[in-house]
Design goal:
This protein has about 140 residues and is of the alpha+beta class. It folds into two domains: about 90 residues, no CATH class; about 40 residues, no CATH class. Helix content is about 55%, strand content about 15%. The strands form two sheets. The chain has a two-stranded antiparallel sheet with strand order 1-2. β3 and β4 form a beta hairpin. The structure holds zinc ion (ZN). The site of zinc ion has 8 residues, from loops. Zinc ion binds next to loops.
């Protein structure tokens, strides 16, 4: 049985991060479908979950490994952008009491300055443009 499965999967793409992510979304949709099963929108969530499940299987058994790999890369870079923004926001929130954050008007870089210093001139470490802010 195991050998059969292995020979079936040979040359096929298999599981990746995007595949796992799709399955997680699928589970969430199924839970939502269960919770809303008595309402009109229930079947919609159920159908969406089923469609995603089929999609993840199609990707897994796909022989177009190049294409699937590129899809996964696109997903990974999207996830990286999202999580890096999130961790930065969390970091800034934790330093909110002692520091203030300003966006440089020249290049858009976020500049961190100590709080409660009154009106100060801030020089951007990246493009050297200076601007005045109240901290
Ligand atoms: Zn700048």
């Amino acid at each position: 049985m195991k050998n059969k499965l292995m020979s079936f999967m040979r040359g096929r793409y298999g599981m990746d991060q995007l595949g796992k992510f799709i399955l997680v979304i699928c589970c969430i949709l199924l839970v939502v479908a269960l919770l809303t099963s008595r309402t009109v929108v229930g079947p919609i969530f159920y159908f969406l979950a089923l469609a995603l499940l089929i999609y993840s299987y199609v990707r897994m058994f796909s022989r177009k490994i190049d294409k699937r790999y590129r899809e996964n890369m696109a997903y990974m870079s999207f996830r990286y952008r999202f999580t890096s923004r999130w961790t930065r926001a969390k970091e800034q929130a934790s330093q909110r009491k002692t520091h203030r954050f300003f966006k440089c008007p020249g290049c858009g870089t976020t500049v961190r300055v100590p709080k409660n210093k009154g009106k100060i001139r801030i020089t951007c470490p990246k493009c050297k443009q200076s601007f005045i802010k109240t901290t």
